[in-house]
Amino acid sequence: MFDSILIANRGEIACRIIRTARRMGVRAVAVYSEADAGAMHVAMADAAFCIGPAPAAESYLAIPRILDAAARAGAQAIHPGYGFLSENAAFAEACAAAGVTFIGPPAAAIRAMGSKSAAKALMDGAGVPLVPGYHGADQDDAVLEDAAARIGYPVLIKASAGGGGRGMRVVPGPGAFAASLATARGAARAAFGDDTVLVERYLTRPRHIEMQVFADTHDNVVALFERDCSVQRRHQKVIEEAPAPGLDAATRERMAAAACAAARAIGYVGAGTVEFIAEDGAFYFMEMNTRLQVEHPVTEMITGLDLVEWQLRVAAGEALPRRQDELAATGHAIEVRIYAEDPARDFAPATGTLQHLRAPAEDAAIRVDTGVRQGDAISVHYDPMIAKLIAHGADRPDAVRRLARALDDYEIAGVQTNLGLLRAIVRHPAFRAGGVDTGFIATHAADLMQPPAPPPRAALAAAVHRLLADARPDGDTHSPWALRTAWRLNGDGYQDFHLLAGETALMLRAHLHRDGNFRLDLPDGAAPDGAADVAVGPGDDGAVCLALDGMQVRARVLRSGPALTVLLRGEAHALTYVDPLAPAREAAAGGDRIVAPMPGRVLEIAAAGRAVRRGEVVVVLEAMKVQMRLPAPRDAVIAAVGCARGDLVEDGAELVSFVPAE
Ligand code: ADP
Ligand code: ADP
Ligand code: MG
């Protein structure tokens, strides 16, 4: 076994590999780009080397810099993870030339599968079933179009060098072929530097089922069962599970045999995945990924094996730890990929700082693989995956239930995520029934991607509780002093709060009780269910427990100035607090003026020269659909007004200045 390995990757997969290396007593060396100096994988590693600036081409893809780091660290082997250089045959060769073991297959096996077209020709020869299609070297337009006509529409034009779900084009009928071919070639050239395409029948309701294989240098090849990865968006996996729902034992056997035949045909060594597309009981070879797959934890959960450990053992020349007849699958496992993205905007990647991040507790049934911590940034430079959440159960319903529960415990604020979509999927009856096809998300988009619901009463109550607590010098909701303040403020024991939920203005009235509890009114009817009696109990770890009409909920409120995020049952509700007293407080704290607390329109403004009493309304501003009545901070005379009725003013604009009254 190696004493020391270098991990030529970042994020969750680098962290996951370090964990296994550590358990095996192997020193783990990280590399990182300038953007990742503070990243989790760097902190976890035994040593780390900066290999260049943020763009991957200058760091995580820079072969000489990675080999230089390996030499300086004295690493005997390099694990490429997935993505980046993991399927780069030139990198595998460069490692060999530098005397470092590449933890992966031989360069020739990577090359054999690197082109989808060449791989298909090879698999055809090995007797592995293929989707009807054309994968020839002749790329003449007429040849491709003839092939499409023979195959029968709809057809799929695919970049032969494609990956990550990119470089695919569906052609519904012959009229669209020429234009689609041009587009597909352009995209393939731009993304992969190679415009070779293949044409195959486009299956309309297929499932993606793949087989995990493992081979060693002693001529052993085993299949470690299948994974169903049919829940996809933009041809990229979102949810993966094992076993594949409804797959019968005979088909599983045939698929495993085909996958092992594929591995043998190319002299494969190490972890690999043979991807099939399945429809109507038949399955066809799609491609082979010659690396560890993103979703390998699903296989680890049902087999109890550590596939990274197997990779290290095989690379060190050991035989596979188990024979095929010693392998068994137990129960059911499901993984969801938590992405920083906006499902409502065609899954556009999102960026930002993870202001708050709390994963569910891990145990034998729940696993979280991540490479980020609270406070880390999701940048434009790399893949937007935040984490993988994997649940195991005795059977599929058991695993789904645990997954749903764990998703409700996942708290992320600061970056837009697909958590809401994932929650909707795991509750959807079609997903619960099992065996959905790759069109599942698109077909059920109306159910799965509903616009954010108005915040529930519990979220509003938690926000109001936070605002009440923040208004107190000691932050203690039970403080009698605080209650006296509230009584003093209004005389009749209530306090009004203006909140914005998206475009909707909400006026909330909290009637304060002597014990720190309150009754919450929603007078303008914008929120559901009217009023509630709110009892405040102690929460743990910064959370708050509120009983609404006797029903207990746990919430967490994050605040950054006027921006409030209420995390409740895994849902993040964004609210804006409109504070009409903010300018008065600012004036009292020093300046003799009123400034606009947010951009808005001036509805009323008092004239210059007028004497005003403290608390008298001087300006009425309409901002974000709420009328704010801005009072004078003290008895004073208006010296100057900075705007006129009807003006639009910027956030922070000076509206009125005062001189002391005589
Ligand atoms: P896997 O096949 O391992 O399940 P995917 O199909 O989602 O993973 O992605 C295939 C490979 O492409 C992975 O190695 C992943 O790192 C990489 N990848 C994923 N998304 C992107 C992207 N948006 N751009 C470039 N590469 C990507
Ligand atoms: P990549 O290298 O990007 O992973 P794949 O060939 O593995 O490309 O295909 C990715 C996804 O595209 C599949 O999981 C499947 O959802 C869809 N797909 C691929 N080929 C077909 C096909 N012939 N018919 C229908 N869908 C397909
Ligand atoms: Mg694929």
Count the helices. How many? Answer: 19
- Name the CATH superfamily assignment of the largest domain: ATP-grasp fold, B domain
Unreliable parts? 477-491
Bound small molecules, by name, code or SMILES, are: adenosine-5'-diphosphate, magnesium ion
**C-alpha termini separation:** 88 Å
Architecture overview:
This protein has 662 residues and is an alpha+beta fold. The chain folds into 6 domains: 4-103, 3-Layer(aba) Sandwich (Rossmann fold), CATH 3.40.50.20; 120-130 and 209-330, D-amino Acid Aminotransferase, Chain A, domain 1 (2-Layer Sandwich), CATH 3.30.470.20; 132-201, ATP-grasp fold, A domain (Dna Ligase, domain 1, 2-Layer Sandwich); 331-445, ATP-grasp fold, B domain (D-amino Acid Aminotransferase, Chain A, domain 1, 2-Layer Sandwich), CATH 3.30.470.20; 457-578, Glycoprotein, Type 4 Pilin, CATH 3.30.700; 593-660, OB fold (Dihydrolipoamide Acetyltransferase, E2P) (Beta Barrel), CATH 2.40.50.100. Helices cover 28% and strands 32% of the residues. The protein contains 19 helices and 39 strands. An 8-stranded antiparallel beta sheet has the order 14-13-10-11-12-15-22-20. The protein has an 8-stranded antiparallel barrel with strand order 24-25-26-27-28-29-30-31. α12 runs antiparallel to α13. The protein is elongated, with a radius of gyration of 30 Å. Residues 477-491 have low confidence and may be disordered. The structure holds adenosine-5'-diphosphate (2 copies) and magnesium ion.
